[in-house]
Amino acid sequence: MDIKQLDEFAKEIIFEAGKNIRAAFSYNIEIETKSNPNDLVTNIDRETELFFIEKIKAFNPDHRILGEEGMGETVNNLKGVVWIIDPIDGTMNFVKQHRHFMITIGVYVDGVGVLGYIFDVMREDLFNAIAGEGAWYNDSPLRKLQPVKIEEAVIGINANWVTPNTRINHEKIIELVQTVRGTRSYGSAAMEIAFVVSGKLDAYMSMRLAPWDIGGGVIIAKEVGAIATNLDGKDFDYLSKDTFLIANPSIHQLILDKYIEEKK
Ligand code: IPD
Ligand code: CA
Ligand code: CA
């Protein structure tokens, strides 16, 4: 397989999809809810996923697509070439803020991540990686992450996890929040991952993410030395939902050991 050619093709369709999404603001965006009133989807999420499926199948009909909106085939394993796609990550930002939403894609060959993309649609900013060759931000190489002390770290975390909840001991998270230099919450997992791989955040965690939220980002993470696991410190489960922590390598284990206590 010609990885460079695949990379060029992926970038081309990501930029085209981005252009289509930006144009969508000039006509009606139809908003629906999915699993709960805060789980949003729009006609643009679906149209964008369909756009990718059509383009990828025309490029190579053997490639399979695991997309958030489920418009491709059912994917139960990662054999062959699988594109893991979130057509819009941060749909709430898309409908409410008209910014801070990403297209994110990971291309896997027999379960191994080879190409990763996070594209900030409104800023037209691309974070991408080719496994083993490096990672880039708009064509400038991303550097390996430098060590950071926990007291100087800025972490991405949703405010829900410092309130009593069923998934995690929030007292420990309060301790974490009080220890670090600052916290941020951007409303797009892919954006927070893009910020960790480029050193704008030092960690990001979530209690429940899907493969398409992180499938592109973890490939970029590897190239800069960021560590991405679930909250048990194991590999993320790509065929279901899982907890997630991506961090600078100097604080990843410390966060798991000292501040994470899951309720199971
Ligand atoms: C969501 C965003 C959000 C994260 C949610 C995801 P969506 O993705 O990444 O930041 O907290 O868990 O589901 O639904 O906007 O693609
Ligand atoms: Ca998502
Ligand atoms: Ca989405």
From TrEMBL:
- Its Enzyme Commission number(s) read 3.1.3.25
Name the UniProt key words of this record, in alphabetical order: Hydrolase, Magnesium, Metal-binding
Which Gene Ontology BP terms does the record give?
Answer: inositol metabolic process; signal transduction
- Name the record gives this protein: Inositol-1-monophosphatase
Xref: InterPro entries: Inositol_monoP_metal-BS, Inositol_monophosphatase-like
List the CDD domains hit by this protein, alphabetically: IMPase_like
Cofactor needs: Mg(2+)
Family annotation (Pfam families): Inositol_P
- Protein's organism: Solibacillus isronensis B3W22
The residues forming a coiled coil are none
For this UniProt entry, the molecular function terms from Gene Ontology, in alphabetical order, are: inositol monophosphate 1-phosphatase activity; metal ion binding
Which residues are Mg(2+)-binding?
68, 86, 88-89, 213
